Amino acid sequence: MQVNLIDFWPRILEATYQTLLMVGISLLVATLIGLPLGIALVVTKQGGLLENNSIFNGLSAVVNFFRSIPFIILLVAILPLTRLIVGTSIGTAAASVPLIIFSAPYIARLVESSLLEVKTGVIEAAEAMGATPWQIIWRVYIPEALSSIVLNLTIATIGLVGASAMAGFVGGGGLGDLAISYGYQRFETDIMVVTVLLLVFIVQATQMVGNLLSKKAKRQ
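That's the ABC transporter permease sequence above. Prediction below.
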Protein backbone atom coordinates (compact mmCIF):
# COMPACT_ATOMS: atom_id res chain seq x y z
CA MET A 1 0.00 0.00 0.00
CA GLN A 2 1.49 3.31 -1.15
CA VAL A 3 1.90 5.98 1.53
CA ASN A 4 0.65 9.49 0.75
CA LEU A 5 3.69 11.68 1.42
CA ILE A 6 1.61 14.77 2.28
CA ASP A 7 -0.43 12.88 4.89
CA PHE A 8 2.78 11.26 6.16
CA TRP A 9 4.50 14.56 7.08
CA PRO A 10 3.45 14.46 10.76
CA ARG A 11 5.23 11.10 11.07
CA ILE A 12 8.31 12.55 9.35
CA LEU A 13 8.36 15.55 11.67
CA GLU A 14 7.99 13.27 14.69
CA ALA A 15 10.92 11.16 13.46
CA THR A 16 13.00 14.31 12.94
CA TYR A 17 12.24 15.39 16.51
CA GLN A 18 13.26 11.93 17.78
CA THR A 19 16.56 12.14 15.88
CA LEU A 20 17.33 15.59 17.28
CA LEU A 21 16.39 14.42 20.77
CA MET A 22 18.63 11.34 20.51
CA VAL A 23 21.55 13.35 19.22
CA GLY A 24 21.06 16.13 21.79
CA ILE A 25 20.86 13.83 24.82
CA SER A 26 23.73 11.66 23.61
CA LEU A 27 25.96 14.64 22.83
CA LEU A 28 25.32 16.25 26.22
CA VAL A 29 26.02 13.15 28.29
CA ALA A 30 28.91 11.99 26.09
CA THR A 31 30.53 15.43 26.37
CA LEU A 32 30.16 15.38 30.16
CA ILE A 33 32.06 12.07 30.09
CA GLY A 34 34.45 12.72 27.21
CA LEU A 35 35.61 16.22 28.19
CA PRO A 36 37.10 15.29 31.59
CA LEU A 37 38.39 12.05 30.09
CA GLY A 38 40.19 13.96 27.34
CA ILE A 39 41.64 16.38 29.89
CA ALA A 40 42.83 13.45 32.02
CA LEU A 41 44.58 11.92 29.00
CA VAL A 42 46.50 15.15 28.39
CA VAL A 43 47.53 15.98 31.95
CA THR A 44 48.55 12.41 32.92
CA LYS A 45 50.63 11.67 29.83
CA GLN A 46 54.40 11.70 29.99
CA GLY A 47 55.46 15.29 30.63
CA GLY A 48 51.92 16.34 31.52
CA LEU A 49 50.88 18.54 34.42
CA LEU A 50 49.90 15.53 36.54
CA GLU A 51 52.06 12.88 34.91
CA ASN A 52 50.95 9.37 35.84
CA ASN A 53 51.77 6.61 33.39
CA SER A 54 49.51 4.04 35.06
CA ILE A 55 46.43 6.23 34.87
CA PHE A 56 47.26 7.39 31.34
CA ASN A 57 47.82 3.86 30.03
CA GLY A 58 44.65 2.60 31.70
CA LEU A 59 42.47 5.40 30.37
CA SER A 60 44.02 5.16 26.92
CA ALA A 61 43.37 1.41 26.78
CA VAL A 62 39.71 1.86 27.77
CA VAL A 63 39.20 4.60 25.20
CA ASN A 64 40.86 2.57 22.45
CA PHE A 65 38.82 -0.52 23.35
CA PHE A 66 35.46 1.19 22.92
CA ARG A 67 36.57 3.15 19.87
CA SER A 68 37.53 -0.08 18.12
CA ILE A 69 33.98 -1.51 18.28
CA PRO A 70 31.81 -0.70 15.24
CA PHE A 71 28.61 1.04 16.31
CA ILE A 72 26.22 -1.50 14.80
CA ILE A 73 27.95 -4.28 16.79
CA LEU A 74 27.99 -2.21 19.98
CA LEU A 75 24.32 -1.45 19.46
CA VAL A 76 23.39 -5.13 19.58
CA ALA A 77 26.03 -6.24 22.11
CA ILE A 78 24.84 -3.94 24.91
CA LEU A 79 21.10 -4.57 24.51
CA PRO A 80 20.97 -6.21 27.99
CA LEU A 81 22.69 -3.17 29.51
CA THR A 82 20.30 -0.87 27.66
CA ARG A 83 17.30 -2.76 29.06
CA LEU A 84 18.81 -2.56 32.54
CA ILE A 85 19.31 1.21 32.36
CA VAL A 86 16.13 2.40 30.62
CA GLY A 87 13.87 -0.66 30.94
CA THR A 88 13.55 -1.25 27.19
CA SER A 89 15.72 -1.92 24.16
CA ILE A 90 13.67 0.07 21.63
CA GLY A 91 12.83 3.73 21.27
CA THR A 92 14.67 7.02 21.58
CA ALA A 93 15.81 6.59 25.18
CA ALA A 94 17.15 3.11 24.49
CA ALA A 95 19.07 4.28 21.42
CA SER A 96 20.74 7.02 23.48
CA VAL A 97 22.60 4.48 25.66
CA PRO A 98 24.77 2.94 22.89
CA LEU A 99 25.14 6.36 21.28
CA ILE A 100 26.65 7.71 24.50
CA ILE A 101 28.96 4.72 24.97
CA PHE A 102 30.01 4.98 21.33
CA SER A 103 30.65 8.73 21.25
CA ALA A 104 32.14 9.46 24.69
CA PRO A 105 35.56 7.83 23.94
CA TYR A 106 35.56 9.51 20.52
CA ILE A 107 34.94 12.90 22.11
CA ALA A 108 37.69 12.18 24.64
CA ARG A 109 40.20 11.73 21.82
CA LEU A 110 38.96 14.85 20.05
CA VAL A 111 39.31 16.89 23.24
CA GLU A 112 42.77 15.43 23.78
CA SER A 113 43.75 16.46 20.25
CA SER A 114 42.45 20.01 20.81
CA LEU A 115 44.29 20.44 24.11
CA LEU A 116 47.55 19.18 22.62
CA GLU A 117 47.36 22.06 20.13
CA VAL A 118 47.89 24.56 22.97
CA LYS A 119 51.39 25.97 22.69
CA THR A 120 53.85 24.67 25.26
CA GLY A 121 55.12 28.20 25.88
CA VAL A 122 51.72 29.32 27.14
CA ILE A 123 51.64 26.45 29.64
CA GLU A 124 55.21 27.14 30.77
CA ALA A 125 54.40 30.83 31.27
CA ALA A 126 51.43 29.93 33.48
CA GLU A 127 53.59 27.55 35.52
CA ALA A 128 56.27 30.25 35.90
CA MET A 129 53.63 32.58 37.36
CA GLY A 130 52.81 29.98 40.02
CA ALA A 131 49.51 28.68 38.61
CA THR A 132 48.41 25.30 39.96
CA PRO A 133 47.70 22.43 37.55
CA TRP A 134 43.93 22.90 37.99
CA GLN A 135 44.20 26.62 37.32
CA ILE A 136 46.19 25.89 34.17
CA ILE A 137 43.56 23.41 33.02
CA TRP A 138 40.58 25.75 33.46
CA ARG A 139 42.21 29.12 32.77
CA VAL A 140 44.75 28.21 30.09
CA TYR A 141 44.14 24.85 28.43
CA ILE A 142 40.38 25.08 27.91
CA PRO A 143 40.18 28.79 26.92
CA GLU A 144 43.10 28.41 24.50
CA ALA A 145 41.67 25.23 22.94
CA LEU A 146 37.99 26.22 23.08
CA SER A 147 37.68 27.06 19.38
CA SER A 148 39.20 23.73 18.38
CA ILE A 149 37.07 21.87 20.95
CA VAL A 150 33.90 23.40 19.49
CA LEU A 151 34.90 22.34 15.99
CA ASN A 152 35.67 18.83 17.17
CA LEU A 153 32.36 18.62 19.03
CA THR A 154 30.71 19.62 15.77
CA ILE A 155 32.42 16.67 14.10
CA ALA A 156 31.22 14.42 16.93
CA THR A 157 27.66 15.73 16.55
CA ILE A 158 27.65 14.93 12.84
CA GLY A 159 28.95 11.45 13.65
CA LEU A 160 26.10 11.04 16.13
CA VAL A 161 23.56 11.98 13.46
CA GLY A 162 24.86 9.16 11.27
CA ALA A 163 24.97 6.71 14.16
CA SER A 164 21.42 7.63 15.21
CA ALA A 165 20.25 6.62 11.74
CA MET A 166 21.84 3.19 12.23
CA ALA A 167 19.94 2.82 15.49
CA GLY A 168 16.85 2.39 13.32
CA PHE A 169 17.95 -1.20 12.63
CA VAL A 170 16.93 -2.15 16.18
CA GLY A 171 13.89 0.08 16.47
CA GLY A 172 15.71 3.09 17.84
CA GLY A 173 13.24 5.54 16.36
CA GLY A 174 14.07 8.69 14.44
CA LEU A 175 14.71 9.20 10.74
CA GLY A 176 16.79 6.04 10.48
CA ASP A 177 13.93 3.90 11.74
CA LEU A 178 11.57 5.64 9.33
CA ALA A 179 13.89 5.10 6.38
CA ILE A 180 14.27 1.40 7.18
CA SER A 181 10.60 0.72 7.98
CA TYR A 182 9.17 2.52 4.95
CA GLY A 183 11.97 3.35 2.53
CA TYR A 184 13.71 -0.03 2.70
CA GLN A 185 11.24 -2.66 3.88
CA ARG A 186 8.20 -1.24 2.04
CA PHE A 187 10.07 0.24 -0.95
CA GLU A 188 8.67 3.73 -0.37
CA THR A 189 11.35 5.60 -2.35
CA ASP A 190 9.89 9.05 -1.69
CA ILE A 191 10.05 8.47 2.09
CA MET A 192 13.69 7.39 1.76
CA VAL A 193 14.56 10.49 -0.28
CA VAL A 194 12.91 12.83 2.24
CA THR A 195 14.70 11.23 5.21
CA VAL A 196 18.06 11.47 3.44
CA LEU A 197 17.46 15.13 2.59
CA LEU A 198 16.48 15.90 6.19
CA LEU A 199 19.62 14.18 7.51
CA VAL A 200 21.74 16.17 5.03
CA PHE A 201 20.04 19.39 6.17
CA ILE A 202 20.69 18.56 9.85
CA VAL A 203 24.36 17.87 9.12
CA GLN A 204 24.79 21.08 7.09
CA ALA A 205 23.05 23.17 9.75
CA THR A 206 25.16 21.60 12.49
CA GLN A 207 28.38 22.35 10.61
CA MET A 208 27.37 25.96 9.97
CA VAL A 209 26.47 26.56 13.62
CA GLY A 210 29.67 24.81 14.76
CA ASN A 211 31.82 26.94 12.46
CA LEU A 212 30.15 30.10 13.73
CA LEU A 213 30.57 29.19 17.41
CA SER A 214 34.18 28.15 16.83
CA LYS A 215 34.93 31.47 15.17
CA LYS A 216 33.40 33.37 18.10
CA ALA A 217 35.36 31.27 20.63
CA LYS A 218 38.69 31.77 18.87
CA ARG A 219 41.19 33.89 20.78
CA GLN A 220 42.68 36.78 18.88
